[in-house]
Write a structure and sequence with these properties.
- The chain is an alpha/beta fold and about 300 residues long.
- It has a domain of about 210 residues: Rossmann fold.
- Helix content is about 40%, strand content about 15%.
- The protein has a seven-stranded parallel sheet, sandwiched between helices. Strands 7-10 form a two-stranded parallel ribbon.
- Strand 1, helix 1 and strand 2 form a beta-alpha-beta unit.
- It is globular and about 55 Å long.
- NADP nicotinamide-adenine-dinucleotide phosphate binds next to helix 1, helix 4 and strand 5.
Length: about 300
């Protein structure tokens, strides 16, 4: 496997940190993020990069001359995307255009992270060839980003994923962390029974992306977890593995939550193509949770 120069964006986030872990060593990695410093104590080759700044994207790619750019940076707050549309578009679409144009200078491969929220959730899980129909602004912006990547004429991979979970340095709450912290504190929680997908551990996803890059795969790939389940079932699995009371978990429907952004209900992604093309093999949810417990990944 040839050693590549890989620039990763958004590395202060959950997936970004996992990507840094899984690509460093085998490749020469430059980690970038909006914040002035990489979080935690790990020694990482890091530079600040706001992907909404076209000049900065151009400069950093000229200097580092990457073979691959992995864009994990995004405006990921689904509800705020409804009320802060311009800010969402500047990062999720303009930022991607900036990276795609910068990648064109040395025909670097752009690996763009996308989402099952580009689908309407009428009949998931979805395959790579299914027709997108986003319900909310976040999904619209991520679909526009996919189209921007295709339009620029560079080698690319679009990696669609869903419900990334795990722990990291100073990461925002993800679904798993929220469940873990609430149940551990003995707090009652309402969890929806009608949102379905196949959640994936951030490191499993990063390993999948590394495999895809190492085996020189291009095009659209769906990378999700091994288990298709609803969020209530996810919460039950967390309670089971960590020994929390299931009585704290109360079923609710998405409708009753009245969230600002509409949610695709039967979402999720079929992962057969990634399995057969580059041996993608995510762990089961219970394997991942048991690993977190045994390794004291969360406490
Ligand atoms: N999380 C999910 O369940 C999920 C599901 C499907 C797809 N995805 C996609 O997967 C990717 C990674 O998600 P994640 O879970 O790792 O999200 P995350 O933890 O929210 O990380 C996103 C990172 O992007 C950074 N960022 C925001 N605006 C930026 C900018 N203008 N320039 C540079 N960095 C910027 C954020 O930094 P600040 O915190 O400093 O703003 C944050 O570090 C995203 O493309 C997301 O759309 C996520």
């Amino acid at each position: 496997m040839a050693r590549k120069r890989i620039l990763i964006t958004g590395t202060t986030g959950l997936l970004g940190q996992a990507l840094v872990k899984s690509l460093t060593g085998k490749h020469q990695v430059l980690a970038t993020g909006k914040q002035p410093q990489y979080p935690g104590n790990e020694v990482v080759d890091y530079q600040a990069l706001d992907i909404a700044n076209a000049e900065a994207c151009k400069r950093i790619t000229q200097e580092f001359a990457p073979d691959v750019i992995v864009n994990s940076a995004a405006f990921t707050h689904v509800d705020k995307c409804e009320s802060e549309r311009d800010a969402c578009w500047q990062v999720n679409v303009k930022g991607v255009e900036n990276l795609a144009r910068a990648a064109r200078r040395n025909m670097a491969q752009l690996v763009q992270l996308s989402t099952d929220y580009i689908f309407d959730g009428a009949n998931g899980p979805y395959g790579e060839e299914d027709s997108p129909r986003p319900l909310g602004y976040y999904g619209k912006s991520k679909l526009a980003a996919e189209n921007a990547v295709r339009a620029v004429g560079i080698p690319y991979a679009i990696v669609r994923t869903n419900v990334i979970f795990g722990a990291g340095e100073k990461v925002k709450n993800n679904f798993f962390l929220w469940l873990f912290k609430s149940l551990k504190a003995g707090q009652d929680i309402n969890v929806v029974t009608d949102q379905w997908n196949n959640p994936i551990d951030a490191l499993d996803l990063a390993m999948g992306i590394a495999g895809m890059i190492n085996q020189k795969r291009y095009g659209v790939y769906h990378l999700g977890g091994a288990d298709y389940l609803n969020r209530f079932q996810f919460a039950e699995a967390v309670a089971d593995v960590f020994g929390f009371s299931k009585e704290l978990i109360h079923p609710i429907t998405t409708d009753a939550l009245k969230q600002p952004a509409p949610r695709p209900l039967r979402g999720g992604l079929k992962i057969d193509k990634a399995k057969s093309d580059f041996g993608f093999n995510p762990r089961s949810l219970r394997e991942v949770l048991t690993f977190y417990k045994e390794m004291a990944i969360v406490e």
